[in-house]
Amino acid sequence: xxxxxxxxxxxxxxxxxxxxxxxxxxxxxxxxxxxxxxxxxxxxxxxxxxxxxxxxxxxxxxxxxxxxxxxxxxxxxxxxxxxxxxxxxxxxxxxxxxxxxxxxxxxxxxxxxxxxxxxxxxxxxxxxxxxxxxxxxxxxxxxxxxxxxxxxxxxxxxxx
Length: 160
Prior knowledge:
The protein is an all-alpha fold. The chain contains 9 helices and no strands.
């Protein structure tokens, strides 16, 4: 619920709830009336019925400093859509390899060719993000290395 509340607060901060656009209000009402929908369902509905509202609805969310919200947006971005690709490209162009690592990790994990090309265009960005993370100490034993396959025992016949 935290992310949902943050999204609604962000939209309120930029004045979306005060605008007299019937389509915008219809979308905002749907979000208000369906608190148990997941991101995937909202993204599908938005693309299908409300995509013309992209410039009003999405940029304010991407402009936050909230890592979880931005990673969720980037997880559901469709680089085949020009507006979404432009948003990703702007983010990549201005991304800080350290501060924006969670968002960059999401983009790298997607392995989208267009996005990877943009990420690769920034020298040092991908290697800085792909630094091997240290193993976190836990009470679980480390995984054992695979043992080589055992050879079956060979039986020999005893001489009579």
